[in-house]
Every structure is written in structure tokens, then in C-alpha cells.
Amino acid sequence: MNKATKIIFMGTPEFAVPTLNALHNNGQDVALVVTRPDRPKGRGRKVFPPPVKEAAINFGYEVIQPPSIRTAEFSDHMAKHQPDFIVVVAFGHIIPKNILAIPKVATLNIHASLLPKYRGPAPIQWAIINGEKETGITIILMDEGLDTGDILLSSKIVTMPDDTSGTLHDRLAELGADLLIQSLNSFKTEKIHPIPQDHSQATYAPLLKKNDGRLNWTMTAWALEALIRGVTPWPGAFTFHENKRLKIFKARPIFMDTPETPGTVIRGFPDELRVVAGEGVLSIMEIQGSSGKRLLIKDFLRGYPLTPGTILH
């Protein structure tokens, strides 16, 4: 292989951008960038390009945004570039067999877990929600399955007690970029030894939906705190007071036995909001009302008091 390996890059969200940056900074020949179509976002439904598109245009790369990757036109366009590798990072679609077969060497994928654990679209969030002490990045040879390909390289990272899915996402994105470059170098030195996954150990990390952030107060305080971090920044943790939605950003669990029903506000310090959980008590530290901005709990309670006996649901 020549020093400048020819690559087609397929990726969409912010998670994929550090890898594209690393390929550019390492002098790789990125012949084509494939990303998802521009999408409307926010209340105004204004159309925005994917982060990968913005980064690729900045580097001067050719960018295509096919509405489908299963057309003959798309596969022909890919094949004409005669890439050594296709690199896939959070593209958002299963890659069909005819596309996987295009590169001269391999199609590589960066996955944000220690496979075979947490296959699927939301490995970072579920690792935090489930209280994993460590997670990581795995580089695999892509096959037709969902994150089932042989493992080329993996690297662990410790999850911090205050990690949200947002902070862990950023660290894993950088780690994935580094590991991808290591993988490409391993092919050049022929020091690559794919290892089949142990499919019996596989777990799945399904896509989160908006309602997955709703707090179920019968859960333990520790599980609730992990859920809050795991769904931050998206879809966000929330509960209701009467018909008003309260978004929760930060909380801490407290060892405390209390006879009140889960979801009940109990007495705490004057600038504190304590809510009974299925086991223990959750002290809410940062919150946002249905209208307003994110506030420390002491500032929120000045304008929106929640007295002991109040029920959250």
C-alpha cells in the first residue's frame, strides 16, 4: 500500500468528526465522504447539515448525501474511486454486502463499546445507565450483521462517576480516531490479526426514545442518578409536577430510609430538593422548569417552591 491510503469515509454525527480529522491530519487520501441528508432540527425546523458534512467541506473533500445507499447509482459511484478502505463511523444505516465488498483491503467500523457488549446504536448511553465501570472503543472488520464483525483492535476507558453520555462521547470519539489510525498502520505493517467475537457474550444497546428519560421513582436513587447522566444531553431526564415538566440535569443519591411513597418530596436543607426513590433518596442539584433555563436547585426553588409532601411523577 502507498503511504497515502485511499479511503472512502462514511459518517454522520459529531462522534465521527475526530476520525475524519485524524485521517486528514495523518495524510490519508480521503477520496469521498458519504453522509446522511441534511435534516430539519429544533422548534423552527430549520435544515442543518450533518457535522461530518461541515468538516468534510472544510477540508475540501467530495461529499455525497444519498437518500439511499442501496441503489446501483450509489454503489457505482463508490466503486469508481477504487478505495483501499471504507471507514464507517456512526453512519446511521446498515451497510449492504455489495458496498462492504468494494474496498481492496477492508471496510472498517469504529464502535463505541467493548464488543460484543453493547452492540447497536446507543452503546455510550447504556454503558452509563447500567453503571459500567469501564467501556471503550472497538475497531472491527464490518460484515452484514449489526456490529458482529471480527475485532481488529480495542481499547478500554474508565467511566468517571460524574460522566454523562455527552462527556463520555467526547472522550470515546477521540479514542476511536486514534485507534483507527493504529488499525490502518497495522495493515501497512501486516501486523493485523482479526479475532472473531464471542457471540454468546453479546448484549444490545437499543436506540433511546424521548420517553426513556422519564424518571420512574420506584427505581433506586443510584439507578436514577445513573439514568440522568446516561440520558444527558439526549433525550434528557425529566419528571412531572402536576402537569408541568421538570428537566433534571444533575442529582446525587443519598443513603436514607424513609416511609414516604416514591416520588414524594421530603424535607431537606433549605436550598435542597430531596425526592424519595424506591430505595434511598435522590437530591436534585440542577433543574429546568417547563419554561426557563437550567438552574441550580437553590435558584429554582426561589421561584418555584416544592414543599415536603409534593408528589413528582
SSE arrangement:
Layout: E1 6-11, H1 17-25, E2 29-34, E3 39-41, E4 46-48, H2 51-59, E5 63-64, H3 72-80, E6 85-89, H4 97-100, E7 106-111, H5 123-129, E8 134-141, E9 151-158, H6 165-188, H7 221-230, E10 237-241, E11 244-254, E12 265-266, E13 273-276, E14 281-288, E15 295-296, H8 297-303
Describe the structure.
It is built from eight helices and 15 strands. It is of the alpha/beta class and 313 residues long. It has two domains: 6-201, Rossmann fold (3-Layer(aba) Sandwich); 210-303, Roll (Methionyl-tRNA Fmet Formyltransferase, Chain A, domain 2), CATH 3.10.25.10. A seven-stranded mixed beta sheet has the order 5-2-1-6-7-8-9. Strands 10, 11, 12, 13, 14 and 15 form a six-stranded antiparallel beta sheet that branches. A hairpin with a 4-residue loop joins β13 (273-276) and β14. α1 runs parallel beside α2, α1 packs parallel to α6 (165-188) and α5 (123-129) packs antiparallel against α7 (221-230).
